[in-house]
Structure formats: C-alpha cells, structure tokens
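seq as requested:
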Amino acid sequence: MNRLPYPSDLSDDEWDLVEPLIPVHQGVSHPREVNLREIVNAILYWVDNGIKWRAMPHDLPNWSTVYDYYRRWVKIGLWDQINERLVKLVRLAEGRDEQPSLISIDSQSVRTSEKKGPEQGIDGHKCVKGRKRHIVVDILGMVLNCFVSAANMADIKAAVAVLGPVLETYVRLEKVLADQAYKGALGEIIKHVHHCILEVTKKLGEGFIPAPYRWVVERTHRWA
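struct tokens:
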C-alpha cells in the first residue's frame, strides 16, 4: 500500500478474517488489476466519512471501480457473510455458542433531510417524518440483520422482513424478544413458520426502564 493509512483502513488481522470470503473472480476473462484489500478500504472510507462516490480520495481506487465492486458484493450477499462470520467469532471469544438462542428486535424512526424519496413516511406514534430502522441483535448487542423502511411501515410487516433471514440462518434460535409494537400476528407467524417463540415485554413504568435482556437492543440503537 503506497499511501498514508486512513483510520478506516483494515488492519492486517482484520484483512485476514475478511479475505477468504471475498470472491477472486468477478466474471471477467482478463486478469484483475485492482487490489481487493484497497477496494474494501475504499468502501470503508465511504461508509466512515459519508461521502459521495465521486468524492473518493485519489489515493484510493477509482470511485467507479469501487462502486462496481460494492454493488456486485451487495448482490451476492458478501456483507451479510462477513457479518455472520464476525458474529460467530465474537460469540466464541465470549465463551458462547456460535449460534444465538435468544435475539431481540426493535425499531427506531429517524428524520430525513430529503423532501422526496421512495423510503419516507410519517411515524404517527412518534411524530417523525422519515425512515425507520429495524434491527435484530443477539444477547451481546451484535447486529444480526437490519432493514430500513419508510417510517410509516407497520412494525409487524417490517419485522417479517428483518427476522426472516435471521431465523433461517441461525437455526439454534428459540426465542425473540420484542416490545408492545410487535404484539399480534407476528408471534403466530414465527411460531408456525420458524418454530420460535415471540416474547413481548410489558412496559415496566413511566420513562426509560431497561427490560432484562432487551436493553441490549436499545444500547445498539444508541451506538448506531
């Protein structure tokens, strides 16, 4: 790497974890001329700094090449594979089974600055116009899946979308913790389709009172 490092660059140890999952062949006949580690570093720089693709620094690969790899990797689910691998490694390091048996789901509505957009709406309950982020985490607070919708999408509908891949990937799951927004049909859906129990926690009182085990998903929202 013939440049000064950026804070978002992968360390050697981090690259060793990610490299085996990255496909070498991209469906082209000519030899690859780009450094895949630098492609990943460029994507991480884009995420970390919130820049436009065309604002990619000149000492990183060309923005159009980086964008092309990013879209291809999204299409094949590479980022999900990387996240799944990291979740398993962290859980094992914490002395836990690599597959969780308990997860939590929650949503958070966020105001957006755009005046128009396909994924916008008004969350009437929270009086927020924008988007809603739905996340599923394990007992350590690690994100297993994330789904972004318009803020007016019903939590139960979004829950089916965000929980489906998690319940299929982590076959050891037994219970899903959720708040009152998810009571109703969701419990029957995940029980009959995925043989998993939905436990809806009751409100413990006025203000913010951490619920046992479920508080970790609230913490993850704040970290994000």
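Strands lie at 102-111, 121-123, 128-137, 143-150, 175-178, 197-200.
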